Amino acid sequence: MRDNLYTAGRRLSPGKSPCVWVETLNPAPDAFFASIPGDWYRNNPIARYEGYYASVFYAYFASLGLDIILEDSSNHGRLDMAVRFNRQLYLFEFKVVELVSSGEALEQIKERGYADKYRAEGLPIHLIGVEFSRDRRSVVGFEVQHL
Question: Which of 2, 26, 45, 99 is deepest in the core (most CB within 10 A)?
């Protein structure tokens, strides 16, 4: 999985879409969370909390050496995670849901205008809403909007 993300981002040629990194990212969290042993959840309510899933994403991106801002405050609230990579901005919002995606994560980024504080930088911005199932302990929603 590291190879997928690292290769997609670092080796973009000028003729390819700058969004390849986001497109490559989508299946990676599924594989990553699927590899966490079920015994680690036994008698442990951690799968109910957004912070658990956000921490796993953070650890993964931090291990790649990416420029990350966590709990980035604005006048409308706090974005869960911003990632600067390849002269682009990736704004992440995480939500824990029961079983199916509701679209709430991406909607929150848009409704609260989390991208507004970054617009003056003139970089491409990608809004990414990720939703996790409390019961399945995996990604059930991954929505992207490119600005």
Answer: 26
Which residues form the domain of 52? 2-146
Q: What is the CATH number of the domain that holds 118?
A: 3.40.1350
- Residues paired with residue 132 on neighbouring β-strands, in sequence order: 96, 139
CB 56 within 8 A of CB 79: no
Locate 29 and state its tokens.
Answer: 């969290």
**Cα-Cα-Cα-Cα dihedral sign, residues 84, 88, 91, 92:** negative
Prediction pTM value: 0.77
Phi and psi for 56 in degrees, rounded to 5? -65, -45
In this structure, what DSSP letter does residue 76 have?
T
H or E segment to which residue 32 belongs? helix 27-34
Cα 45-51-52 angle, rounded to 5 deg: 55
Per-residue model confidence as pLDDT tens digits over 97-137: 887 778 899 999 999 999 999 999 999 999 999 998 888 87
| Number of independent structural domains in the chain | 1
For residue 125, report the phi and psi dihedrals to the nearest 5 degrees: -120, 135
